[in-house]
Amino acid sequence: MLKPRRRAALVVTAAATIASTVALALPAQAVTMPIWPSTGYIPTGCDTNITWTPTSPTAWTFNYTDSGTPHVTGVHIGTGAGSTSVVAPSGASLITQVFSTETCSGVANVILGLEYNGAVLIQTPTTPATTDAFHATSTYAMPVKPDNAGYYQVFATRVYRRYDAFTIDQDFRLTASTASVTSGIIDAGPWMAQKFYVLRATTLSNALSAAKVKKGKTVKATAQLKYATNTGYVVDAGDKVVVQTKVGTGKWVSNATLTTNSSGVVSYTFVLSATTQVRFIHNAVLSGKFTTGVASAIRTVKRA
After folding, report:
1. Cβ within 8 Å of residue 74, ≥6 positions away
2. Does this model's pTM top 0.90?
3. Which of 290, 93, 70, 297 is nearest to 199 (CA)?
4. Lowest-pLDDT range of 18-27, 246-255, 292-301
5. pLDDT of 26-38, one tens digit each?
């Protein structure tokens, strides 16, 4: 059986970089891509000039050519599911996934173009993450710290198909192949408009001036908001915090939107009418500091 030639990875120099805290890429969860499924595979979407060659009275081969175009069907960037990732001072691995398909000979590899806050960050080869070359997933892993918070987008991809020609036997198993010599296809799609956010982790305290007071007396609730940096948590001054209360078995009510002072502190005073629960809410900020949403612990003040 002829062995397919391995395509050398195309390494493209990054057009720009962000903060120096983005170091070299972490190793991706690489897999060994088989040259063809051992159980056989029936190609689809190939050129129509398929030829049939008998090799014995009971065996034969099919000869295919493939001039098809592989396509990217979707992308995802993050430390997990969803479009936002939260990063603490310890940092995290930000994984970019590219999903592509080519149902004749399969996808050979994918070159990824990544943007950070609207500017080109890097162009780089990806690593196969599944053994299915026909509906492929490839990845690029990059360490991030809180100071790398912002939004990330895949702005372009170059996708390579595996073979220009190949032969399979009557059981649809590969017997020969010729690696593709194309320079790849620059693909585009609606996935280019998707923004994926890396947000700084936040903390929000909650303290009451008293745990039990008489009806008609005032209670003061105080909270402090902090956000993650590369070296630890610092106070978040000038940001918004919502204070909510729930009286008895009633519903949560938003009472005020407060702005943190230079110490990251807000306070709220209310008159007690019955047992009341208090909490503070900080909503995610998708610009500027790029901080994640957080809810404080719930504190209760009882009627004496």
Report:
1. 99, 191
2. no
3. 290
4. 18-27
5. 444 568 889 999 9
